[in-house]
UniProtKB/TrEMBL annotation:
Claim: Nucleus is one of the keywords in the record: no
GO cellular component, one term: plasma membrane
Cofactor(s) listed: Mg(2+)
Membrane-spanning ranges: 327-350, 373-397, 935-953, 968-988, 1017-1035, 1050-1069, 1081-1103, 1123-1143
EC number(s) stated in the UniProt entry for this protein: 7.6.2.1
Protein known as: Phospholipid-transporting ATPase
Gene3D superfamilies named among the record's database cross-references: Calcium-transporting ATPase, cytoplasmic domain N, Calcium-transporting ATPase, cytoplasmic transduction domain A, HAD superfamily/HAD-like
Amino acid sequence: MRGWEKVGSSRSNLGRAGSTVTTNRITSTVRLGRVEPQAPGHRNIFCNDREANFLVRFKGNSISTTKYNVLTFLPKGLFEQFRRVANLYFLTISILSTTPISPVSPITNVVPLSLVLLVSLIKEAFEDWKRFQNDMAINNASIDVLQGQKWVEIPWKKLQVGDIVKVKQDGFFPADLLFLASTNADGVCYIETANLDGETNLKIRKALEKTWDYLTPDKASEFKGEIQCEQPNNSLYTFTGNLIIQKQTIPLTPNQVLLRNFVLSVMLEKRMPRALEYCNGEKGCSLRNTEYIVGAVIFTGHETKVMMNSMNVPSKRSTLERKLDKLILTLFGALFLMCLIGAIGSAIFINRKYFYLGLTADVEDQFNPNNRFMVFILTFLTLITLYSTIIPISLYVSIEMIKFIQSTQFINKDLHMYHAETNTPASARTSNLNEELGQVEYIFSDKTGTLTRNLMEFFKCSIGGEVYGTGLTEIERGAAQRSGGNVGKAQKSPGLIHEKGFNFDDARLMCGAWRNEPNPDTCKEFFRCLAICHTVLPEGEESPEKITYQAASPDEAALVTAAKIFGFFFYRRTPTMVHVRESHVEKMGKVEDMSYEILNVLEFNSTRKRQSVVCRYPNGRIVLYCKGADTVIYERLADVGNELKNITREHLEQFGSAGLRTLCLAYRDLSSSLYESWNEKFIQAKSSLRDREKKVDEVAELIEKELTLIGCTAIEDKLQEGVPSCIETLSRAGIKIWVLTGDKMETAINIAYACSLINNDMKQFIISSETNEIRDAEDRGDQVEVARIIKDSVKKDLKKYLEEAQHYLRTVSGPKLALIIDGKCLMYALDPSLRAMLLNLSLNCTSVVCCRVSPLQKAQVASLVKKGARKITLSIGDGANDVSMIQAAHVGVGISGLEGMQAVMASDFAIAQFRFLSDLLLVHGRWSYHRICKVITYFFYKNLTFTLTQFWFNFQTGFSGQRFYDDWFQSLYNVIFTALPVVILGLFDKDVSAKLSKMYPELYKEGIRNAFFKKRVVGIWAFFSFYQSLVFYYFVSTSSSTSQNSGKMFGLWDVSTMAFTCAVVTVNLRLLLMCNSITKWHYVSVGGSILAWFLFIFVYSGFLIPRDQNNEFFVIYVLMSTIYFYLTLLLVPIAALFGDFVFQGVQRWFFPYDYQIVQEIHRHEPEHSSRMELLEIGPPLTPDEARSYAIAQLPREKSRHTGFAFDSPGYESFFASQAGVYVPQKAWDVARRASMMRSRPKLPPKS
């Protein structure tokens, strides 16, 4: 019980600790969400001894992901809001409006600013409250901790470093633990890490043999070990430490470390809701197939590896948003110019000759003719407050709201992008980049798991220089068809075995027939290498029919499955042994169980590109089996058997040409003395606390040499469904697709052919390091010479191909171009001296394939086009090696497939299949771009129109800064009277339907050209703002200047109220003119906004407000008692909108956009979209999915040329159809409605 009496006090102290202390020094704090350099030294942890650890003051296990607390919410929240330039601008205007120089009441600017801030702060508070609830749920989750000699349940937040904990089956780990003991034999436990490293299979973790007995409470209470380990860091796959127990120092590896639940931590870090509910599901549980384990806590809370690793995705801003900033700056310039004109005019106008102005000697400074400079300055400031409405305060809030709804309601719920087989919908992880999807010009794609299915099947192999396997791949069939050959149906061998991971057809190796081959001993080594050299875990009954394999990758599972079918059945693994049931080895039909002692495992990683196992046969033979990429295996082969090397190299190229993934297999016999001397160095390297990984790799190099080549394997990874047609569609849309893969050049080229990325009509530029000159240099071993030769070769090729490309582009009917380059050449091509040539050549090519590239090179290529060409880019991938590329592009898309969640976690959008990219870009991306452009230009138009009427009024007031509109009019114009229609426009406007968007992918090019947000488009809107403001002011003021029959004249507030009424009606009706489709929500929002104005003015004019001058009292009632009001309300909007109407008609008929041509082509075609066709046959839907699908079945509002959307359910149409009444669909097109005498009714869709 020692130390437990102080749980309360120690916990509170630990919670306040600001530093992590080792025995000798204080280290810097590791802050949440930021990776900081690891502090020098190491930490000492005393297991099961809270008193000793209390002195060190390790951090507690409580997690806090909230941005605010009660005290910081208001100041920090307001600070976040005022970081936006627009909000800061309106804060400045609001302050100015409280000064005597302001012509308007402070409410004019304070009210709209307060409403915007209130909405934003409520949203922030709601999101932070959700985070707080998640924090509390996680911190209060229970865990069994050893106290004395019994397990006691305590909350996670009370857990401390050094505690001994018990984690039960299907539970998840509350902190980073040192694995001590398990209920499974030999101290083994199984964990699922699919959401950590992307691997869907179970992983094995093995406790140290010294700690196997510490399983029960009485035995665990005797454990008094000391852990010396690294300081907290964010490296998920490494761990350096030693366990000192019973005066013996034992090295610790990542194999003994159990990491805190990754999904839970990431969801909290990303501020994702329902984190706890998610982790209670299947995906969140970490411990599997194990009753319970016992572990010691080594890292807690924010110092756990996953919490330090789960940084936020870099914040991205769309290109359109950056252009919006420029538009805002332009409006600032216009505001400055208007104020400058007014200030100069006021300084000139002020004169005492205007005696009726009362400009006496004691007049205020703003109107003192004796100090015209002061008049200029004060009038300038006055006009800034008066014209402040030119900047739309509600623009950012409206756009955020529109984007959020587009993401959550349209993209996430699109059944076209729902994959029923894996029950995976599309997911917009950010709403900032919706419109960016509509302007993508370059796509960078991974191959494996992105273009292909990542379902590996053993297809062919080469053993001892002989090729086995008679099948034809999809790519070989496609190549034969392209060359005009006739590929018949393949003849299958009788008794062909086909199971998951195995699609091999060659009777020479089946059922022991390999014994009759010329090289049976090599075949035996080949099969044993497959059965022994791996980290696969067998599950289920130990029979070939019922066993299942959990592998680190689909490739490994396929290789072990192949060994099983060839007669070398791997059926059991212990921490030190691999058991294989071998058939037909000694003689045909004989089955023998063999046990191989695993002495060492040299793990695979992206740097080594190989995996080795040192094993001891029952007869004492020690063998190193190695498998890996051909490039690294060939470098380590013994200098004998060159003929076999050359033959196998030809086979590798043959397999690569067929689109197969290849691995080379080799072995080396080791003497006992050689192994013992090497193993001492290996143990020493593994015990090092500094640079352990580097030292282990260096020691591995000592034994992974002088290998004997056995052969190679060829695995087929088939294309995903719909990939070729999707790529063809995207290419027609003007999008250029680059494939960046780690595969061999031959494989990459053939995959590109199969995907329709490359065809025989293209001129191919190939830059490869596999030339005779480069190979000869590599054989000589002079790395400096090799680098020089490769760089010279790359420079020569780039220069030659660039000249050819420019020549082809100058010809009228030149072929399309394709560039293929490998990783070695790319490394030199990315050199600053050659980068410009590479970029120019690449941009002239329709397709680019980069093979044998590293994750870093993928990111460099994406950045090259993004920054060098200033084109909008999209990266798509499915694995952890694609994360850097995904984050480097403008838009990152993750494939939520078989490689887990790391790519998805780093992405902006997630989809289940590559083919869904066409819907994401051509439908949602194009719609979003079109809508956001309209929203921005409409905001620009309505605010400029409103402000210019005030500007014209000042010409008749001597530029004095007299306001034309009442304060409340100016305050509510943006936030009430014109707010809702523009949101409806941004949500529901569609130029063409989803079906037509994909039928005519060329429509997407309008987004690439930025056709809807050019300077010309903004200039046209500005012109009509200028025109309409003149109509509002001069038509109303001139028409009201004559006296009524009674002899009475309209006053200022009568005229301004009339002008404001016309402005509200006109700008709302103008929105309907720019809509391509109109739903009931358009009618409700536009009619509701106009109605809101009349309700407001009726109430506002009907009450005598207690102030010095009640401007609006009874004004509307006086106006509406005259015929003038109704004539003006009818004629002024018509006059104002006449120019827009004529312009739109002329533009549509004589200078149409592409989408308008498509509209005319399909103007009379009703759309028949059966939603049942959208959902694939798959597993039963959950209640939520069933409900979403049922809602999707409801009839939708449709127009003649827009078709279905995910916009507004047609409830009135639905209820009418239930009553047996047909409701005609609503069409809207300005020019067409003007030219059609009557609309031809549509027939109801056929059932």
